[in-house]
Amino acid sequence: MSEIIHLLGKSLNQFLDAFAQLNLPSHYAYLAYKYIYKHRILHFERFPSFPTHIKTKLANSASILPFKNYKSFLSKDGSRKYLFQLQDLSLIEAVWLPHYRKPTICISSQLGCPVKCSFCSTAYLPSIKNLSTQEILAQVLSILADTSPPASPIPPTNIVFMGMGEPLLNYHNVYSAIRCLVLDFNFPQRNITLSTAGFVPNIYRLASEHIIPNLAVSLSAPNDTLRNSLIPINRKFPIHSLLNACRNFPTQPVCFEYVLIHNINDSPLLAHQLASLLANLNAKVNLIPFNPSPLLPPTLLPPTLPRLLRFQNILSSYNIPTFIRKNQGNDIFAACGNLALLYPHTSLPIINPTCHHHIPHYPTPTPTTP
Questions:
Q1: CA 135 from centre of chain
Q2: Residue range 289-341, pLDDT digits in tens
Q3: Rounded to 5 degrees, what are φ and ψ at 73?
């Protein structure tokens, strides 16, 4: 039996090659390309104007989505979390966040995450694998098909690589997905943001590409001592090397994400240190109140509102654009740092029982002086 041809992620020329390989007329390749990328049709049997025998041949020889199935969960604030089952039965998550101007699709790049940030629930999942380009793109395509009318223009939408995983540790597949989003889906590259914990070599690599997304950096501390305890990759790529990589990144400003944890990294002193650190950069800051999770130590808490606002005001006093990210999807564990296969009815991750994975324990970071 010949190998299944995966169409999602292929360029138009690759569609033509694939249809030639299947001995199908080239005009069907053009139509299939349009139906998938422009009309968001997910199943061959729904392709208009395709004869039944061609639909059958495609169904037997090719695929669009690499998922066995998926399920969505609706938050009381309108957010949706999607649970996708891959062909190997493993599970990943993505999130759709509504907004009156432009919704956001938050997608995953890995199953689990090897970076192991101490404030992120995904760190408690085993790091199993990189997602393929098709598995990354299928999150976007499935969510678009679920949230927008078929055959209509894709509504203005932000795509953020801020779900499960460290995108720059799955560089080839993530960048291939970004290229496809821009060249085939026709997403403006200004609407695509890649968030990294700071894998410095691939920040430089990304800066040299032809298509370059916005860059967001999960910083969360203004000094190496504290950041080492929060984001262990800092031990290999300390703050000075990370900021040097960001300084001349082509898409500016660079967004620095700062997860605020009560009495850990939310003191006025640290706000002043952060402002000094970013003084000579074209930067903006997104403050993200910590989102508790049953997988994380109960001693980790979000900041009080007065401390959150004081932190923002200090940064703003240095003329650094500083925003507080609105938490969305908390009730379905869809908020930032909560993607760990958790659902309201359970406090344990849903993991394929045949894998026998162990959920490790990570120490609580050392508090700073308030």
A1: 12
A2: 999 999 999 999 999 999 999 999 999 999 999 999 999 999 999 999 999 99
A3: -130, 130
User: Which residues participate in catalysis according to the annotation?
Assistant: 93, 336
**In the block, which residue shows the tokens 């903006």?**
284
Is 356's pLDDT higher than 70?
no
pTM score > 0.85 for this model? Answer: yes
Q: Which of 111, 251, 126 is nearest to 189 (CA)?
A: 251
**Measured between alpha carbons, how far is 55 from 73 in angstroms, rounded to an integer?**
31
Name the one residue in this structure whose structure tokens are 């059958």: 56
Q: In terms of Cα–Cα distance, which of 14, 16, 46 is closest to 28?
A: 16
Q: Phi first, then psi: give them for residue 189, nearest 5 degrees.
A: -65, -20
Does residue 68 surpass a pLDDT of 90? Answer: no
**Beta partners for residue 286, in sequence order:** 257, 323
The alpha carbon of 308 is separated from its chain's Cα centroid by a whole number of angstroms, namely: 25
CB 305 within 8 A of CB 266: no
pLDDT over 70 for what percent of the chain?
92
Closest CA to 197 of 158, 156, 246: 246
CA–CA gap between residue 169 and residue 224 (Å, rounded): 21
Residue type, 96: W
pLDDT at 342 over 50: yes
> In this structure, what token pair is assigned to residue 119?
């404030």
